[in-house]
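quick one before i forget lol
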Amino acid sequence: MVAPLSPGLVGTAVRRAGGLLVGREREIAVLTEALSGGARSCVVHGATGMGKSALLSVASSIAVRSGLRPVRGLRALSGVDGHTVLVVDDAERLCAEEADRLARFRGAVLLAGDCDPDALAVVDAVRVPLRPVGADAVAEMIRRRFDTEVPPELTAMCLEYSGGAPGVLSDVLDVVTDLSSLPAVLPGLRLPRLLRAVRRSWEVLDADAITVARSLAVLGSAPLDVLCEVVGMGSFRTLAAFERLVDARLAVGEPMRVRSPALSHAIRHEMAPEARESLHRAAAEVLHRRCDPPVAVAEHVVACAEPVGARWAAPVLHGAARLHQAAGRPEQAVRCLRAALREPLDGGIAERVAVAMAKLHLRCGIAPRADELARQRLAAGEWFDAVVLDWQCDEDLLGHSADPVVPEDPERVLRTLPESGPRVVPLALAGLGLLRRGSERVVLDLVPQLRSQLVGTERDWLTALEMWAHRAGGDHAEVSRLMRELAQASPLRGCVALGAAAFVASCVDGGRPGEAREMLVRLGYTGTLPPVRACTLLVHQRARMHLALGSARAALADAERAGAAELVDQARAALGREHRPPRGAAWDRLSPHESRIVLLVLEGETNRAIAARFNVTQRAVELHLTRVYRKVGISRRVQLSSVFGLA
């Protein structure tokens, strides 16, 4: 009898195979029974990625513990006896000569392959079919790899994508480094194992079967009549080709589909882009004629690199976008709307698409694109004005440079905001009007009422206005709390720039300019900012921060850009005073050139500006700064001021 599986050679082989053998206890038991007490042939068969090679290694270890001598390959054998077992992997790749040699071999054989065991010349062999593993095995594989509990929805996603193939799932987990990123990267993964399997299959399949396989990979799943229309073949011919795919373990029926999403993606990736787009276009037209749901039709239209050019495309894409947004999928919704903007648009649908796109920009935090905004300018109306204000778009470029009018009675405007339509513009202008008049108390009084009415972008603008009101009241702790909340939004948006300006002003007022600089570095507000209203206010406060930090040259540049005459005078006066950096132990460790670079960094200069000053590459400046970091034991640019003092 065979010794227990663990500990020993079998246990070692199982551990080396890792998660590939999770859930394969029954198959290991069958191999153990077949190889114990005598040499019997075994055929391990299954689709690509089912773990055949890993199980074959376990079978070899079982054979060794049974007193057998495994010999790999079909090379000439000498001294074959009853204790020899031939081990052959990837049996489907055997050529005719190798298959003939295998048929003439009379000893025991351990065979593994993605093939029909009846076609193999192995007499009286124990067959070990490898079927897909279940959810428990998938969860255990992920748990072993990441050493953490796996959410059920993530397990279900991996099981569906891999089709229960442990080898495919293992390839996925080899690529993914962060479990939380798996849902985002899973649909686009390229798995070399499956690509090789697809190309090997194409070598033995006929043209009809390949065409049907590629069409199924594009369609996902389809009834026979839809598949026939897309491939352009009759039902008998299409069904015969599909049966050959089933025999090749590439497809399954009920419904007709490729075996797994991972294999389907590999087939699509193997296709030429022109052929793939042609199939997507054909699928979109067929599904539209059949009046399938807009989401199903839009999926194929969006996949086309070029517009479909049909009048029905834009309404279908708009309908699909509405369904995606209602289901909480804004990324898919914006893809549909961007595809709709490329298609022929009548007046009514053009307005609906433009407004829907503007709502996604405003309510879901999706950044607009300049070429799309140009098409929305006339159709979206007041929604377009709100997008321009919120996302700090270049008004001159868009032909929208007229300054908005601050309302004469901003308090009344805030109290009577419209219940529908975009409220960003009246909210922002009325709030700024109150702040300019010194009516911060009114803003704070209206915040509870407004917060219950506003959503998404509108709330972010209210938060920025509230920060200015708290700063005027000297409540710097509340300003800091609201800044941490607002910093979660995109720094490209005007409300974040407005809130950052309030935060910088609060920090300068409270004697914490270094904290303000760290926040600006985090948000990316240290360089040139767009020439828009919120950023002009931020540049003004940044000039005050530079003055507080002693960076007179940077303060002068920002003050001139913001048109702040008083700050310009202060910065020029500071530049006229001779200033030397404090010389401590940290400065003594630097070379003269490193000292000059650090001094310029402390004055607010960027790496690019420093490189231009010394006529070197930006990379050279970065290398000098890296050496400085190592000398003084820091890792970030913003830590220089704490080590070297303020310039």
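fyi Residues 518 and 639 are 9 Å apart (CA to CA).
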